[in-house]
Every structure is written in structure tokens, then in C-alpha cells.
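Exam revision sheet. Question 4 asks you to relate a sequence to its structure. Input first:
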Amino acid sequence: MNFVRFAVRRLLEMAVTLLAASFVVFGAMYLAPGNPASFLLGGRSASPAALEAIEKQYHLNDPFIEQYLRWLTNVLHGDFGRSLQYRTDVSHLLADRLPTTLLLVGMAMVVVVVLGLALGRLGAVRGGATDSAVLVGTTVAIGTPSFVAAILLQGLFAVELGWFPSSGSGSGDGLGTMMWHLTLPAVALALYLVGLLARVTRSAMLEALDGEHVTVARSRGVPERHVIGRHVFRNALGPVLTTAGLIVSTLLVCTVLVESAFSVGGVGQLLELSATTKDFPTVQAISLIIIGIFMTVNLIVDLLLPLVDPRISLGTRANA
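Answer key, C-alpha cells:
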């Protein structure tokens, strides 16, 4: 019952926060220099009558609150408006590009989780030279920005070796082709976060290794692999899960850089192009979706943490 009440309370908090975020997202775009009418005119001069017609069509002269409420009502009905640049519904643009970005983020997340957990566990358990190598490797990974990793991977594996495509997403040619095209972008996107998760996993496991329950288990002759799996790694999952939730959000934000570097044609690249051309409806829609995904991931993490680690009560977070 406590779990249900907590879930309902968190959902209500999420709804209120999303409402506040929507107000900020809508208002922030109108604080930026320039206006949609200038873009629609393409820099051409226009008569007062033509300018008035454009402003009337897009309700640009309506009071701010009226514009916001109209936009919010449409968003709740799945209508994000029309793109000023592409002259089509924003929802259609997102439907075409969102699957590519979600696949890219999913592939990157697999790389982060598999390598991050493996390296962190290896360093904590083996120690010595192995741990030192893990620390050096993760330091290099953390110190390499996504756009730098993109350039290096593109130059080596796409241009020099020719193993992977240098650009594009391969959308429309099947899942296998898309995954092949997105391999390098996924690795570039994941590299920094692999180092981060490995560091968190290593630290959490080293702390768990010093626990009394581990000493007791070893004194009773429990096999080392069971000690590591059941008593050490399981107790380290709290901070790891918390970090994994933050990683998903970071991946969504960093897709802007990586998709642009590889010309992937996903939501990240669309966000960059739309911000450059002041395509307000598209920027607002993508920003709100990213915020919504971020909050959803955090809600899931909050609900899973007590199930993974009974020592954590509902509404608290493990120390990452």
C-alpha cells in the first residue's frame, strides 16, 4: 500500500513539474532574439499587411498566456503545431526521426551497461595492475567528449578502415542496416558514460567488499563467486541503478552532438537545426519530450531502488 501511495504521489509530482517545465519551455523561446515572423519571411521585406497576416495566422500577437494555454491544450491532444522550417506537423517530423534516436540511445545504453559494469567489477575484484588499468582507461574515457570521440572513430573505422559508414542512419533499409550505421555513433555516445559507470560500479563494490556480511560469508566457506555475485554486486546495485538513470538522460542530450557529427538524421540533429533556424514549435516539442523522458526515467529508478536494495526506503536515493 505504501508503494502504491508513493507511486501515485510521484506521478502527481511529475505532472506538476511537467506543467511548470512546459511553461518554461514555451516562454524561453520567446525570450530569444528574433521572432518566427522574420524566419517565415526568409529575410525578405514585407508590407505591413503581409506581416499582419502572418502574425494573425500564427497568433503571434495574442497575449502570452493565451498563446501558452492554446499550445498546451494542443500538446495534450498530441498536436505540437506546425514546423516553421519544414511546413509540416511537428508530430510527423518526430514520428519519422524519433525511432532512429531511440535506437541510437538504446544501443549506446547497452554498451554503457555491459562495459561499465564489467570494467567496474573487474577492477574492484581483481585489484592490483588490473584495477590500475581500469582506472587509467576510465579516466581517458571520461576525459574524451562525445564529439571528439565521434571524430576519432569516424576517421579510423569509417575513413581509414572502411568498416562502418561515416554518415547516415540507414533508416528504411531494415533494422540490421540501421544498427550497422549507428554502431560508431553509439560507441561515441557511450564512451564517456562507460568510464563514469565503471567508476561508480568499482567504488560501490569496493565499499561492499569491506562489509561485515562479506567477511562472515567468506568465513563460512561460501564460494568466492557467490560472495561477489550475491553479497557484493547485489549490494552495489543501488548507486549503479541511480547512475544508470542519469545516464539515460545524458545520452538524450548528447545525441545532439553525435547525430550532427554523423549526420544521423534523428531528433538530436533536428533539435540543432531547429534551434539555429528558430523553428520554435519543433524546439519546444523536442525539449518537452526530453524533459518528459528524463522525469519518467527518474520515476522508474525511484520505484525500482527499494526492490533492488531493501535497505533503501521509498523516496530516497542511493549515494552514487
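Marking note for examiners. The domain at 94-278 is CATH 1.10.3720.10 (MetI-like fold).
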